[in-house]
Each structure stands twice: as C-alpha cells, then as structure tokens.
Design brief:
The structure holds 2 protein chains of 2 kinds.
Chain A: H1 19-24, H2 30-36, H3 39-49, H4 61-66, E1 76-81, H5 90-97, H6 99-113, E2 117-122, H7 127-142, E3 158-163, H8 173-180, E4 204-208, H9 209-221, H10 223-227, E5 237-244, E6 250-255, E7 258-259, H11 260-267, E8 277-281, E9 290-291, H12 292-295, E10 299-300, H13 302-307, E11 316-321, H14 326-340, H15 346-363, H16 369-382, H17 390-404, H18 406-415, H19 425-429
Parallel strand pairs in A: 1-2, 1-4, 2-3, 5-11
Antiparallel strand pairs in A: 5-6, 7-10, 8-9, 8-11
Helix pairs in contact in A: 2-6, 2-9, 3-6, 5-6, 5-7, 6-9, 14-15, 14-17, 15-16, 15-17, 16-17
Chain B: E1 3-6, E2 9-12, H1 19-26, E3 49-52, E4 59-60, E5 71-73, H2 77-91, H3 108-116, E6 134-135, E7 140-142, H4 152-159, E8 166-169, E9 176-179, H5 192-196, E10 202-204, E11 217-222, E12 231-237, E13 240-246, E14 277-280, E15 285-288, H6 290-304, E16 309-313, H7 319-332, E17 338-340, H8 364-373, H9 380-389, E18 394-398, H10 409-416, E19 421-426, H11 431-434, E20 439-444, E21 453-456, E22 462-465, H12 478-485, H13 506-516
Parallel strand pairs in B: 1-5, 16-17, 16-18, 18-19, 19-20
Antiparallel strand pairs in B: 1-2, 3-4, 3-5, 6-7, 7-10, 8-9, 11-12, 12-13, 14-15, 14-20, 21-22
The chains are: A alpha/beta, B alpha+beta.
Chain lengths: ~425, ~525
C-alpha cells in the first residue's frame, strides 16, 4: 500500500494554483452539479461519507452541519486555517498549492448549510498562503464563482480572508470566532455551541481546510466512492505532516487506517541512518506520545490511536529518535502551552505556568524527586476542567512523557543532566 | 417548573435556572468566584464544580441549567478534590500578604480556603510577578498580583456601567486586568468594582487602610443621596462611619449603587456635626444642651404662633418626622405657612438611566404627601414676600443633611436671615449659620443613620429603615424637636427589646450578646 492521492493528486503542478490550471484538471466541475442538488441532499451525502473533521477533534462533519437550527436566520461558514498545532503544516500546503480546491469546497458547503457569507481565518504567519488565497478569491469573483448569483443559479456567497495575529488559541473554534469578532481571542463558554450561536451570535459552522476541500470529492464521486478508502469508522484519506528524525519529512496523503510504522519506513524513508526510533507523537503536540513498541501496533485512524490512549488529532506525526532527551522535549512543549494559554480559566492559566516552571526547575538542576509526581498530579487536575481543550492539550503530553519515560526524568533529577545526552540544560542549548 | 435533587434534597426551580442559582435558593453552599448574580456567566474560575448523576465528569454549576429530575451533588469526594485543586490553582501565584492586605477579613480566598481548602501547598516555584499599586482612576487602586482574574470588574464595566474601561491584557499566567489606553476607570459607578472584587485586588482609595474590617459593624439603611433610595449597608464603629456599600434590592437598585452615594457617610461623622445646641439672643453665642435649645426656642415660637410664624422644610427627613412637625405647626401653632425648600430645581427630573437621579433628596415624595394631607399650598414666593414686608417674624427651618446637594445654601440662609427670630434645626455645621444676625436658636438634629423612619422614593415606594447607631447624643429627631417646640416633654420610648425568651439555650443567649459586641463583625455573603 502506498499514498493514495485524492486531494493532492495535482499538487505538483505549479499552475494548479491558478483558476485556469485548476479548471484544466477538472476543477469547478462539481460545483454546478452541487448547486442543482437539494441542500439537504448534500448534507446527507456528507453524512453518509463518514467524513470527520480534519482539524483535530474528528467530529463527524455531516452531524455538525445537522446541528444548525432550521430557520431563516443568517448563518456563517468559517474555514479554520489557523493551523497552530505544533507539527502540523498540511493546511499551509493545501492553501498554497490548491486555493481553488478550498474555495470550491466552501461554496458547496455554504450552499448545503444555507450560508451566504464565509471567512477563511488564516494564521498571521502564513503570509504566502494569504497572498495566494486572496489572488484566488479575486479570480473566482471575476469568473462569477463567488458573489451574487453564482453560475446563474441564484445562490449568493461572499468569501473573505481574515488574518489572525498569531495565537494558538485562535485555532479553537470559539476562540477563532472571538478573534473574528474583533475581541481578544478567548474561547467562549459552551453551551451555546457555535452551530446555534456563533459568529456575531448567529448560527455558525467552523470547518478545517482539509475537511472543506474533501467535500468537493464526496459530492463529485459520491459517498460510497469516498468510503472506498479508510476504515469503517474512519473513512477517506488524510494528510499527515511528518516531521522529526526521518529521512524524508513532509506531507503525505494516505488512507485512514494506514499503519504508522509503514508511513515512517516506506513513505518517509525510515529513520535517519544509524538512528533508532524512540517515540512518536502521532497527532500534533497535544497528543500523548507513543513509544517505539506502541508505534508498531498503531494504525492511523481515530479508533486505533484512541485504543492506544492517544489521538489522531491534526495528523502531525512528530518522530523522535534515540538521540532525543525526553525531558528536554517536554520542556519545549510545556513552554509552548504556558505561552499560549489564553489565561481565562484558572486551572489552565495557572497550571500551564506551574508545569513549565517545575519542568524547567528539573532541567536547570533544581528538581526534587517529588516534582515528578507533582507533574502528574497537576496535569491530572487540569484535565477536563476548563472551557476549551487547551488545558487537556497541555496536560496530556506531560502525563504521557512522564509515565512512559520516567527513568529519564528520575535520572535528570538525581544527576542534574540528561540521561540520553549526558549534558546539562545549559550545555544542550548553548 | 423542573424539579431536581440537590445533595439529597428535592428542590423545585423556575425554568432556565442554573444549578448555582438553584443551590443558592436551596441554601446549599457552593464555592465560586467569577459568578455574580448581577453579571453574565463567565465560567472561568472553575470552582463551582458539581457532580451530576449520569455524567462522569464534574461540571460547572454556573453554566449548567437545571433539568427535570437532575440529581446534583457537590459534597462528594470527587467534587471536594476538584474544588481543592481549583483553589490551589488560584493560590499558587497569589501573594501571601494577608496581614497588609485591605481585603483581609472579607476576602473570598480566605473564606473559601478555610471552608474548602486547608491543605499543604506544594508550589515550590517562584511566584509570578505582576504590577502593584496600579492607579486605575480617581477612585480605585489595583494590585495585579492579588487578582484572580475572575473578570467580574471587566464584566461590570461592559454590562452595567457600559463604560468599557477595563479589559484583560496579556495571556496565560501573565494575564492582568487593566484599563485601555487613555481610559482611566472613571465613571459614576466605579466603586462597585471594588465591592464585587472577591479578593484584595481592587481597593477603594477612600476606604483603604482606614479600618480593618473586623473592627466594623454593618447595618442596612436607605441611601439619602437622591430620590432613587438605594438600599445600602453602612459600616461603622465607635469612631464613626467608614464606608457605604450597596445592599441587594431587586425593586430599587439591584446589586449596585453610585459613587456619589458612597460619600453620604462623611457628613454623618462627628467632625462635621453640630454637637450642641446654640443660642444667641442679643449679644453672644451660648452653648446649651440640644434639647434645652429647643425648649428655649419654644417660647418665641409660641409668641409668634399664627400668621407671623413660618416653617421651612427640606426633603431630607423621614415621613414620620414631617408628619409630626407639620402636624404641630398646623394644629398647635395654627399656621399653614409651611414651605418646601427645593434645591437644584432645574435638574430635578434628570436620570442617568441606571440609578442616579437629579432630585438629590431621599424623601421628596414623602414631604409632598404630608404637605398635601395638611392642605398646604404655600409657595416660596409667599415666604419671600412675607419676609420682605415683615409679616413673617419667626422662621423655623429644618435644614439639609447633605450639604453637597444644596449649592445655594448660603444664599438661602441670607434670605431667611431677614426674619427676626430664626430657629434652625440642622445636622451639620456651617459657617453661614453661625454668621446669622438677630436671634438664633440652633438645634442639632439626627441624621438618617441615627433614627428609624420611612423614605418614599421617586417611584412612590415606601422604604422603612432602622437606626444604625448614634453619633451625636444630644441631637434630636424632628419629631422630638416638634414636641419640645410645642412646650411638651419627650416621652421615653418604649423599648422593644425587654422581653428575653426563656427557651433559648445558653449558647444562643451568648451569641446574641456577642453580636452586640463592638468587635464582632457580621459579614454578608461573598
């Protein structure tokens, strides 16, 4: 088995970025077909395809759309392109290589849910993708694919790019909505859920770039064709961003259910010469880490990874070889979450900072043995206690790193230096 | 009307009630900081955890609505542990400066730690450093390190005062409350933020460091700052009054009061008060007992009874007092020359949309009611004319308590000084009074915190209030002054507290006694 390129088939063509290049490969052929369908039929088709949100949570897309109230209220379709999960870089490639794929998917999705206004919320650092998207949106407007009376069907849809300001939390859907409203990017209390009261307190659907792009292919070939790939509960293909100590890091589109070890050894060319696999974070930095032994049992689908106590997340596979110090690695992660916590809920605001301080005490040689258990206790009590999942995202890596590689932490506390590298924190970083 | 079970008790609540509201109704205690009944739900302190049957995770009570048959528990070990950790997260970066913190004694962190905490802290890292003594505006000072970021104050400026000065800045454990650039916290309701701050982060410039709260007693009364008649709590001890805070009344002021009203305690205190009666007949001032001054004035009042006697009233006294004094003048002295001293007439009807009204008298409606009852129609012009042509020889005046509301005080005093004899009843000292020419009897009277009575507010709502304490012991109420002016003696009021129930336990009796002790402070809910 190898890569199956559904979404990324033509990504190697530079002209695929333009309207003409996209049309040449069959782009915007699904749109007129979709606009002739009943909106409910599109929703049903997406439901039947088993498409699940590709942003991280894996929530069934069709079901999410079904939560919208059935009334005439204006509603919004927001595309989440904030892509802040460390290790993830698939949306960036999709927007750079195939902006029209996303636009077509958004028009179809907007038609299905009855929305006439959409935004693509792109993280501020993505300067080039924003440029490409803006150009593509202009092309689409000029070609009558966006705006009033799309392709003469009477359906109106306006689309804009909104540039974020570099906060991880704005990738959380309600945090993103706050940011889009011009407020501080802080998640909102749920209920009400965005589908009922979201952007500007109107019904709102937030979907990831990859999810929206996939909608076109589901409508094009039908749900059954989409289900051909992947597993019963995790249908279709998915992009995985592989980074770390492999020979060929990069984005790979494989069917869900694909063995993780094959992705590393076949697609990515295996570990760097002379190195041995030590651990993999399979779904972005928030996902609990897998040891080399567990990696052998893992398939890239929602259920298999959940069975191993971790998650598929955004599909960011971070590979670590035997030269990596896990204490040092965790220090990077705790620093990230302490920096990115929005500061709203107390357990997360204080807990992320506390975890980071404990970890850096250990790294700098001031650690106490009880600190290792304290890390677990603090992380345990941050889980499931807050408005959004950032607190859990900060706690899960700590719990998995400390329990699975406890010996390295204990060694570090006793000796004041890394077990793997043999050096102190200052020596490792300067 | 959904029914639910809270800690084993069945409770019926209105549709759309949150669990925390239901628990307040049922009298169950629940830890919380960010939830406030007068503000929107923020759900950020994560302390009001409850366990709901059928749900594996603990939930916050403030954002969960009660549904039919819900079984709620907040006494289980799971909830206790969650609350303990919730508190711990609040406390790890909180400075341990209670001994020098102004909030000590009425602090939410202290209270809830004693109730739900009491554990050994495990935090061994350096605490987060933040800004101290931040000047937010003319009334409020912020200590960011003490702040627990419950966002109550931010929500207050967004939702109640609608002035939006405050915001949350920065992220994570560096988050701080602050004012937006060029927008100091300067609005007419700013001090409410201090009341709702559960910790010592926001303190009032007026009150901070003046008194430890456990040396204060409190009593509920009605604000006499304007015709809204906000229900307030006044805090006092032997040294006088120290602050005023709002008391909840859904019909009148909700949870709030204005900053102006917080100053009403100032003129009540000794240093501003007329402590003794003063008489000047012919030559020099003579200091006498307050009651004696009234008795002395009785002769001259009696002598001018009839058309040459006038009574001037400000709407700053209670209905009962107006009734007594107007009754005395109409029935005993046979005069209907009773005049209503109206201050700032132009702004009388103004209203800022929340609480502040232009009528700076607490009892205008009450005075008008009494005047109408006695069929009094005299206007100020009649008084001016009478004084000018000398037909009014003696004037009895009940002057304002709150001088700030009477900018034209000195001017009016000058006009009234045309009368031969002036009997002036007044709570506060003023130069214009001691400079009065002719024969003057100054009688000290009680302020609103020193007497029982009724105010009728702008909406016609009668609000009864009780005496808090006595500041000037020689001061009289208008009722007493009316009796003395009519030449009668004061009846000793029957005490309502003589009966002591025999069936009380010894500790209950002791508790009653302790409540009367100066140093025991009865605290309101957080």
């Amino acid at each position: 088995m190898a890569e199956i390129k559904v979404l990324t088939e033509h990504y190697h063509l530079p002209e695929y970025q333009t309207l003409a290049g996209y049309k040449a490969k069959g782009g915007y052929e699904t749109l007129p077909k979709a606009l002739k369908m009943q909106p409910q039929a599109i929703i049903d088709e997406v439901k039947a395809s088993g498409l699940r949100g590709r942003g991280g949570a894996g929530f069934p897309t069709g079901m999410k759309w079904g939560f919208l109230p059935k009334n005439g209220e204006p509603r919004y379709l927001l595309c989440n392109a904030d892509e802040g999960e460390p290790g993830t870089f698939k949306d960036r490639m999709m927007m750079e290589r195939a902006p029209h794929q996303l636009i077509e998917g958004m028009i179809i999705s907007a038609f299905a849910i009855g929305s006439h206004k959409g935004y693509i919320y792109v993280r501020g650092e993505y300067v080039y993708p924003i440029e490409v998207l803006n150009k593509a949106i202009k092309e689409a407007y000029d070609a009558g694919l966006l705006g009033k009376n799309i392709m003469g069907t009477g359906f109106d849809f306006d689309l804009d790019v909104y540039r974020g300001a570099g906060a991880y939390i704005c990738g959380e859907e309600t945090g993103m909505i706050s940011s889009l409203e011009g407020l501080k990017g802080q998640p909102k209390l749920k209920p009400p859920f965005p589908a009922v009261q979201g952007y500007l307190r109107k019904p709102t659907i937030v979907n990831n770039v990859e999810t929206l792009a996939a909608v076109t292919y589901i409508i094009k070939d039908g749900a059954q064709a989409y289900r051909k790939h992947g597993t019963e509960k995790s249908a279709g293909t998915k992009l995985f961003s592989v980074s770390g100590n492999v020979v060929k890091p990069g984005n790979y589109e494989v069917p869900l259910g694909y063995p993780l070890i094959d992705l590393i050894n076949k697609e990515c060319g295996g570990m760097k010469p002379g190195r041995k696999l030590k651990a993999i974070i399979p779904g972005g930095s928030s996902a609990p880490v897998l040891t080399a032994e567990e990696v052998g049992k893992a398939n890239l689908d929602y259920e298999s990874l959940a069975g191993l106590g971790t998650m598929l997340g955004s599909g960011a596979v971070i590979v670590m070889d035997d030269s990596q110090c896990m204490v040092d690695m965790l220090g990077v992660l705790t620093h990230f979450y302490a920096h990115e916590s929005c500061g709203q809920c107390t357990p997360c605001r204080e807990g992320t900072g506390w975890l980071n301080k404990i970890l850096h005490s250990i790294l700098e040689g001031r650690g106490r043995l009880q600190d290792i258990d304290l890390l677990i206790k603090v992380a345990d009590n941050m889980k499931g206690k807050t408005i959004c999942a950032l607190s859990d995202a900060a706690a899960l890596p700590v719990l998995s790193f400390v329990t699975k590689f406890r010996d390295e932490f204990e060694f570090y506390v006793r000796e004041g230096r890394s077990k793997v590298k043999g050096t102190t924190y200052a020596e490792m970083h300067h | 009307m959904p029914k639910c079970t809270i800690n084993g008790k069945e409770v019926e609540v209105k549709e759309g009630t949150s669990i925390i509201e239901a628990m307040q109704q049922s009298g169950d205690r629940i830890a919380h900081y960010c939830w406030h009944p007068g503000l929107s739900v923020a759900g950020v302190c994560r302390l009001c955890m409850v366990e709901i049957e059928g749900n594996p995770r603990v939930q916050i009570a403030c954002n969960t609505m009660v549904t039919e048959g819900m079984k709620i528990n907040n006494t289980s070990e799971k909830v206790k542990d969650a609350v303990k950790w919730g508190l711990d997260f609040h406390l790890i970066n909180h400075p341990l400066d209670c001994p020098i913190c102004d909030q000590a004694g009425e602090c939410g962190l202290q209270d809830q730690y004693m109730e739900y905490g009491k554990y050994d802290p495990e935090m061994a890292e350096h605490k987060q450093k933040k800004h101290k003594v931040v000047d937010l505006g003319p009334t409020v000072v912020l200590d960011s390190e003490r702040c627990i970021l419950c966002s109550r104050c931010v929500r207050f400026t967004e939702e109640v005062s609608k002035t939006n000065e405050l915001g949350l800045f920065n992220r994570g454990d560096r988050t701080e409350i602050g004012t937006h650039d060029g927008m100091p916290l300067d609005n007419k309701y700013s001090l409410n933020t201090v009341d709702i701050c559960p910790v010592g982060a926001l303190t009032s410039k007026d009150f901070r460091f003046r008194q430890r709260v456990w040396y204060l007693k409190d009593a509920e009364t009605v604000c006499n700052g304007c015709s809204t008649g906000c229900n307030v709590k006044v805090y006092y001890n032997k040294e006088g009054f120290f602050r005023v805070k709002p008391a909840y009344n859904e019909q009148v002021n909700g949870h709030w009061m204005c900053d102006e009203g917080r100053d009403i305690y100032k003129f009540v205190n000794k240093e501003h008060r007329l402590a003794k009666g003063m008489i000047r007949q012919g030559g020099t001032w003579k200091e006498v007992h307050g009651g004696a001054a009234a008795k002395a004035a009785a002769e001259v009042v009696k002598a001018s009874a009839g058309d040459s006697l006038a009574l001037v009233l400000t709407a700053q006294y209670t209905v009962e007092e107006f009734e007594a004094i107007v009754g005395t003048f109409v029935n005993e002295f046979k005069t209907k020359k009773v005049f209503f001293w109206i201050n700032n007439k132009e702004s009388f009807d103004s209203f800022d949309g929340l609480l502040l009204r232009g009528d700076k008298n607490p009892n205008t409606k009450g005075l008008l009611k009494v005047l109408e009852k006695h069929g009094i129609t005299a206007t100020w012009n009649d008084l001016s004319a009478g004084l000018a042509n000398g037909s009014i020889k003696t004037v009895v005046v009940a002057g304002p308590e709150n001088m700030a509301a009477f900018p034209d005080f000195a001017e009016r005093v000058k006009e009234l000084s045309k009368a031969q004899n002036i009997v002036w009843m007044q709570a506060t000292k003023h130069e214009a009074l001691t400079n009065l020419p002719g024969n003057v009897w100054l009688i000290p009277v009680k302020t609103f915190v020193e007497k029982d009575g009724t105010f009728i507010n702008h909406a016609g709502l009668e609000q009864k209030f009780k005496k808090a304490t006595t500041i000037v012991s020689e001061a009289l109420t208008l009722t007493e002054a009316a009796l003395l002016l009519a030449g009668k003696n004061l009846a000793i009021p029957a005490s309502g507290n003589e009966f002591k129930p025999m069936n009380q336990r010894a500790d209950q009796v002791e508790l009653e006694a302790r409540k009367k002790n100066e140093f025991v402070f009865r605290r309101g809910s957080l």
